[in-house]
Write a structure and sequence with these properties.
By secondary structure, the chain is an alpha/beta fold. The protein has helices at residues 29-41, 52-61, 71-74, 80-88, 103-112, 124-187, 192-229, 242-252, 254-259, 277-293, 352-362, and strands at 21-25, 45-49, 66-70, 93-99, 116-120, 238-241, 263-268, 272-275, 300-308, 311-318, 366-370, 378-385. Helix 7 (192-229) crosses helix 11 (352-362). The N and C termini lie far apart (69 Å). It binds adenosine-5'-diphosphate (ADP). Adenosine-5'-diphosphate (ADP) is lined by residues 286, 290-291, 294, 318, 320-321, 323, 331, 336-338, 348-354, 378.
């Protein structure tokens, strides 16, 4: 052991209650004990041995994170020992203790599965730093394994959620539409009393239909968010005309527009844009749906898409409830919703604008909001490169 004055740095075990276990295998029990002393003072649980016959039994009796193995303990290049140790405790990491003169042997041990070596004589802090470093590597390995598992299950999770949520909703809303249409046709042939009953039923069906649609939109929104967060959003770009995307979106949300008697006007440049149609449609759908959600009945929305000197500019403008200045940036944060108990019907997860921001940024564009304040309408603008 190197003679040096030192204050042994106690390992910070406050973060986890777990004390790590270290096995010291040295050629002489005196050395094993003095190394063990340093480690226990450093906050580890230590077992020591200098007897080859004991090693296997100790390893079978308890789990250790780290073993310190003295090269001199082996007498010869007994590389097999590492294999034996690893076989009994595959997660245990071995640090070789070696004098400078046989450092090459230690390097051979690295090839056989040891993780690190320390050159004798070493000081207490050097030893503790080495054990600490190995424990950090163990921790990283555990994290890496769980990240890999997570990655594998992400794909499965997305398709399961998508299937489990979308399929029943599609079946329910499809069936309701069919029932609704049949009832309407049958109604013509029925007497007055029966018609009243049917009228009430229609109202209920309409509620179920509206709520199911709303739930479908929320689920679609949630799935887009999960896809983006998991890095699964494919952004293959093609040349397309924005007018087609806007038309599709308006067609999809026509019932929403009609229900609130919103007047939508548009001014769309016919130029071709290089972008990912599927994701840009999500952005436009979110922006226009928000404008409808946050605008009173008979409100007005204008959608425009124009080419400016070096970029395309898309603007959705409404004359709705507006946004306070201090919220203009925050509304693009994940899960941020302005608390407005007045707008009760406008349900959502507060993720729509976060999705839009991510998609536009993935296109190297910019997105922002403008409003002159509460009650003064809002403008959402995004730009795309030419
Ligand atoms: P959600 O609509 O689900 O709450 P978003 O991320 O789409 O989530 O929007 C975040 C918040 O931004 C909304 O809760 C709302 O307060 C505000 N907001 C979005 N669009 C508008 C708009 N056109 N007019 C006024 N407020 C809006």
């Amino acid at each position: 052991m190197k003679k040096e004055k030192h204050n042994i740095k106690k390992k910070d075990i406050s973060k986890s209650d777990k004390k790590h276990k270290v096995l010291v295998i040295a050629s002489e029990i005196k050395n094993a004990k003095s190394i063990g002393k340093i480690l226990s003072e450093g906050g580890y649980i230590v077992e020591t041995t200098s007897k080859p016959m004991e090693v296997v039994n100790i390893l079978k009796s308890a789990d250790f994170e780290v073993a310190l193995l003295d090269v001199e303990f082996l007498n010869s290049k007994d590389f097999l020992l590492i294999e034996v140790v690893k076989k009994i405790q595959p997660k245990l990491e071995v640090i070789i203790m070696t004098p400078q003169s046989v450092v090459n042997t230690a390097i051979e041990f690295l090839k056989k599965g040891a993780i690190e070596y320390v050159v004798k004589p070493f000081g207490a802090n050097e030893l503790l730093a080495s054990v600490e470093k190995v424990l950090q590597i163990i921790e990283l390995k555990v994290q890496l394994i769980s990240l890999k598992d997570l990655d594998k299950s992400k794909d499965e999770f997305i398709s399961t959620v998508s299937h489990e949520l979308k399929t029943p909703l599609t079946a329910i809303s499809g069936s309701i539409e069919v029932i609704f249409e049949r009832e309407r046709a049958e109604n013509e042939k029925r007497n007055e009393q029966r018609r009243q009953i049917d009228k009430d039923m229609h109202k209920l069906f309409a509620i179920i239909g509206r709520q199911t649609k709303k739930m479908k939109e929320l689920v679609a929104n949630l799935l887009d968010f999960v896809k983006i967060e998991a890095g699964f959003m494919q952004l293959k770009k093609t040349k397309l005309q924005m007018i087609n995307i806007v038309k599709e979106v308006i067609q999809e949300i026509k019932p929403l527009i009609d229900a609130k008697k919103i007047e939508i006007t548009s001014n769309i440049d016919s130029d071709y844009v290089n972008c990912n149609g599927e994701s840009i449609k999500i952005v436009i759908l979110n922006l226009i749906t928000n404008s409808i959600k946050y605008t009173k009945e008979n409100g007005k929305i204008n959608v425009s898409f124009t080419k400016q000197c070096n970029r395309f500019k898309f603007v959705v403008e409404d004359n709705g409830i507006g946004i306070e200045k201090q919220n203009l940036d925050r509304i693009f944060d994940k899960f941020y919703r302005i608390d407005r108990s007045l707008v009760r019907e406008a349900g959502g997860f507060g993720i729509g604008l976060a999705i839009c921001k991510k998609i536009i940024e993935l296109h190297n564009g910019k997105i922002w909001a403008k409003s002159s304040g509460l009650g003064k309408g809002s403008k959402f603008i995004f730009t795309l490169q030419l």
